[in-house]
Design brief:
The chain has 265 residues and is of the alpha/beta class. It has a domain of 184 residues: Spore Coat Polysaccharide Biosynthesis Protein SpsA, Chain A (Alpha-Beta Complex), CATH 3.90.550.10. Helix content is 35%, strand content 20%. The strands form two sheets. Strands 1, 4, 5, 6, 7, 8, 9 and 10 form an eight-stranded mixed sheet that branches. Strand 8 and strand 9 form a beta hairpin. Helix 2 crosses helix 5. It starts with 5 loop residues before the first strand and ends with a helix. The relative contact order is 0.16.
Amino acid sequence: MTEPRCTALVLAASRGSLDPLAQAGGVSHKCFIDIAGQPMLRRVVGAVLESGRAKRTIVLIEQESIEEAKAILAGLPGAEHITYMPSQDNIGSSVAAVAAPDMLPLVITTGDNALHTGEMFGFFCDALDGLTDDVAVGLTPATYVLEKYPDGNRAFHRFRDGAYSSCNLYAILTPHGIEGAQVFKSGGQFGKKPRRLIGAFGLFAFLLYRSRLFTLRTVLQTLSRGIGVRTAPVLMPYAEGPIDVDRPVDWELSNRIIAAREAAG
């Protein structure tokens, strides 16, 4: 097994108290919905633990949901070492409340990435070796996603050299990179809600991004200069990486993919 060397942070807070997926699933929290026989949070955290890369795993979720989350994750190999912390008002504040220099590299994922596997998480962690940037972001080329799931309705970031979708995998690599978490105070989801880029990075960065005249790396370099944090892309060769469970159609697709994956062994 590869030596554990990162801190894993699973952001599991819901975006609203009346999440429609939680209501449809008959559970108290979106991350507790059933995905092919297991609660979604158990699948996500199980993938992190299975990767063997995390020396410490932290789950951030609403205070009132912590005990239920503990019960759901009980029995996973290594579950007794998971740390639970209450989430804050937004992603940026939640990360800032946890991130500290002695936790770096800090690898961040979300509680609704039900299709992530230990292999995916491990690939991202391994790709961080040798990077000298402050933060890193995992992206899958759109060609990978659409080739395997042609009807997949994903939010793609489009550039001159192609389109990409976020895998909800981020890494803070340096103490200076902790400051980069502040761009998520608006809520993130820049692919689905690109106008949030204006508040996070400024109007010029937004116009540069929307023009599609520049490559992914050029735009990332410009965004990095705007916030003073160097950002590296990590290209992920997994079509399922960007498929999170935000809508009923995603829930149905994730159920089908995991059921087929487990049937195939």
